[in-house]
């Protein structure tokens, strides 16, 4: 009978798996295999790993396991537990639905950066000092994200973080590492800014460079003196005739006088008096 450490046996009993020998043996195997793997940007504790390994082993053998109990003894919140379980499942290669660069590029609608993302991921594996699994979602998402950054392809960053199954703080930590790596190794791939230079054609005969954007403009033709003199005199004569016609029209036009005002017999501000005498304020009946 296989012997297990005290913590392993205690957690197995809390999950009601102490009598499932096949599950315990498989969970212990997964735990030993997990010790040879490196989990980048993760803070999963040893107890959490044991609980998740027991959960995965129970799932493989079809043994029922209460999710709330597993979350309770893992010391994690339920979303974090499910996320960590998915990461360990991918790390241990227990599922077939691995994320690939082609699948991620199609889902994010950025297939034009697929080749560059694959090169970045392969180069990262060569330069990395650790033995990493390139099929893990965080590495695939990082490669696609930085390939889009280099080619200036706009994607939704929140969707990439969600697909990487990392927390924002874990993503930021891993992103800082990848940014330095990509800038050091793929700086030449970045597109050059500014306008393209004008096309310059070199003459093969005399070696003179001619700018194609410059076009020769035809020179203005010089008018002969006789033609110019005749044209100026004709224009002056026409202007003189027009001025004389204007003066004749002004002399014939009669001068209009403004009408005089009709004098008023009485002032509009005084009340006419019909009879002589003093005007009474209170007239008699």
From TrEMBL:
The keyword GTP-binding does not apply. GO terms for cellular component: nuclear origin of replication recognition complex. Residues 100-181 form the ORC6 second cyclin-like domain. Keywords: DNA replication, DNA-binding, Nucleus. GO terms for biological process: DNA replication initiation. Belongs to the ORC6 family. PANTHER family: ORIGIN RECOGNITION COMPLEX SUBUNIT 6 (PTHR13394:SF0). This is Origin recognition complex subunit 6. It comes from Papilio machaon.
